Input
Amino acid sequence: MFIPEIPNNSLTDEITQIVELSKKIEDEGYYFDYDPPATEEELSSWEKEHSITIPESIKDWLRFSGYSNICNELAIIKGVKAFKIDCELVPDEMVIIGEVIGDGQFIGFSKENGEIMWEDHGEVTRLKSFDIFLKDTVIRMLQDS
Output
């Protein structure tokens, strides 16, 4: 498993925990894929092209890995080229950045106010930042694996 260098940013602790858990359970048949980080140019180009600001906490994840498949699609965080805008499956304000649990749940953010949004078959939960999603969902589920 390739693991990019862990950046020193707001998600350093969460990324470190996810990487350690990934290494621990990979031998048990779980699949992980971490691509190299997104560049600052990729992030700013996407923002300029779409006139939408990516929340800093999401940028901090992308500065670690530009695309991630965590634990057999427990969570997929896509790169900026694969972000979805104006998807009929989620509220109009939501930019989809990935999928959760592989059963039609989406993680993203509000293009209006930057809130992290988790859409679960029509029900939307709003989180203050991406680290809450990582702590309360990804890390917790990896620990239970």
